[in-house]
Amino acid sequence: MSSPHSGDTVHEHRFDNGLWLLFEPMPWLPTLSASLLLPFGSATDPEGLEGSGSVLHDWIQRGAGALDSRAHSDALEGLGVRRGGAAGREAASLSASFLSGELASVMPLVAAMVDEPRLDAAEFAPARELAQEELASLADAPTQRLFNALMERFLDGGPGRSPYGTKDGLAALTPESVRQDAVRRLGPGGAILAMAGGADWQNVQDVVGRAFRGWTGEAQPLVEPKVRPAGSGHVTADSAQTQIGVAFPAPDPGDPDVYAYDLGLHVLSGSMGARLFTEVREKRGLVYSVGASYRALHGFGYTLGYAGTTPERADETLRVLLAEIRRLTEGADEGEFERARTGMLSAVVMQGESSGARASRLASDALLQGRARTLGEIRRAVEAVDLDRLNAYLAGHPFPEATVVTLGPKPLSHEAAA
Amino acid sequence: MSGPATPTEQRGELRFDRTVLANGLTVIGEFNPFAASVAAGYFVRTGARDESSDVAGVSHFLEHMMFKGTDRRSAADINRSFDELGAQYNAFTSEERTVYYGAVLPERLPRLLDLLSDMMRPALRQEDFDVEKNVILEEIAMYEDRPHFRVFELAGKGFWNGHPLGQSVLGGQDAIRALTREQMLGYFERRYAPSNLVLAVSGAYDWDVVTADVARLSGGWRPFEVGRDLPEAHPASGEGRTRDGALSRVHAAVFAPGLAVTDERRYAAAVLGNVLGDDSGSRLFWALVDKGLADSASLGHEASDGAGAYVGYVSAAPERADDVIAAYRRVLAEAQDGALDPEEWRRSQRKLATSLTLRAETPLGRLVSLGVAEQTLGRYQSVQDVVRAVMESSVEDGRALLAERPFDALYVHRLEPDGAPSA
User: pTM for the complete prediction?
Assistant: First the structure.
């Protein structure tokens, strides 16, 4: 059957103020999704003011232009907009999904948050208080705590910092310090707006251009992540399960080898038939949840592995997890390769059906690689890796030593991590 | 593009298909000419509410076991087959139902149907049962560490007050340890009748091929009668508390009497739940989250078979919890005593309409609503039908719901650290 999903079109435009717009037409959809990435993350929070980016991200959503916090929120929601967003390590995001016909009404309200946020003093205290509450609530979220501790142990400096900030950093913020931070980091210079869905490119470009044309300013350059020497750590917590996290460097997101690498990771952990799930859960019943996946920051790739298990099984779980990671160097067999490839290619097609998935992927491509990939490009690049190339890659690039952090009632025995 | 686009204008070529096979299995489809993939899933009308106390947790454990092999396939074969299809797949169990589903490229649908249908007649081998029991115990331990999940089980049990909707999906550690393979087999043989299953397909497919395949694949399934107890609910109001020294925060789940899934007022209840407790722009959001008093405060309406509830959640620091929970209660009380604003009603209608339309972008996103509508209402409901029902529910409908004062009968359960101040 014929399909409108060619997956080969991504329009781009860089406005004079530096804002970079990307758009993927999905003309069969009645919906549009937008993802705005603002390059202020915890990595570039001012020293001693950790959490400034998190509070700024909340504060810009508390009133803009002529509208106070309540009026601005009501205006967006009156258009049926579904909102999202998060403060991250490298960038803060604002996302919006809505019916396509509302494009011209929605974008000025989105633009106002970055172009003319009110940053009212009265809204500062609740914004910070909410950030403090969210930081405190991590105490009851062991998996999130584990990953924060792991990233801090794995990466040196800014990029290793938690997006939630620190207790002291949040306490030290003032309205003035965060306003200064906005001057320094909330510019269109490094900002990315990615959109996907049922609309016409010319119309999108016109509407976005009009909405964001008053926005000026630069942005801080992203910080290059540096890996600390591999090692291990433990966070003591009174939890039912021991949380195990591992991290090690991987090809950077723009490296052509990233597709071979990702295929290898799919053999390891792309599905419930992959090696980790089979060896750790299906054969041994050690866990409910286990996996490893490719992650990236700007110009830097890494792999995160995870398993959660009761404390008495934690040593064995970590041993099997690390053994399976090491064994990948020996290569994949024909069947494993075919299954990994089929899974990745199917996922590409299915991602092309969702406006939100496409908008957020385009935005992250632009941030991480400085360019957007079409789904067609990804498909062709995956198809170009055959079994010989995959195995030659895996044999020639053994996984680097992993940093291992655990969280639970007691540390693991030394032998397990060795 | 001019004027608001509606789903109806652009998705006008959807088609609904429905066939009931000789063995009683209902097969439904929603064909979408724009879909690049197809999703299929078996919806079994069985869940925690259908369990007797000696088999608590069996529905969910059985869901895991359905992936552990059939007469034709080992557990590894099943996982490998899904991977060969490039499928995105999973399963879930609730109080109401158990669902097994996958999405693939259209040319692989026949093989997906073969696999899912084969799985509906599992081998339930003892050695697989023994290994999987450990996985279930690990899953229970995982949720022990997730108080925002655990508090709903505690609150549901208290609120439903002996009604089956209050039964735990996971079952407890002890119940799972004691469960035998024979008990599971007995449950399977009582619940997995063809007439208690719906196979739903959404996206790109050929209906003649689908029905011919499924008729052949399910040809050997023996028909028998399956029922469900629908006792009248007598929900409790009041407060419950559970202490856990490992916690740092107070997590509270809130229940109030709501509407059954067949009640025509359920769309208004959904809008009302959104007005009061959506995670942005709702009354609870402005009263608690916007002010930084709670990191989360929400409410929604959940319509179930024969009964329903408004279900909410709030979490706060222990020293503040009394004030926060009092403020939460006040928001609901003031909604009953005060006026509903037509503008806030309209905003919630529009937010819900957008969410419904977004979810329908993908065949997999559409599948669950499709299957659930057939199973609960016995008829097709397009996305447009649901959007229309939401948009037609009026602020007067919301006022009528509030006039029945559902929030006078609130049940609040706190899961809190040791030493939290008592009310």
Answer: 0.95
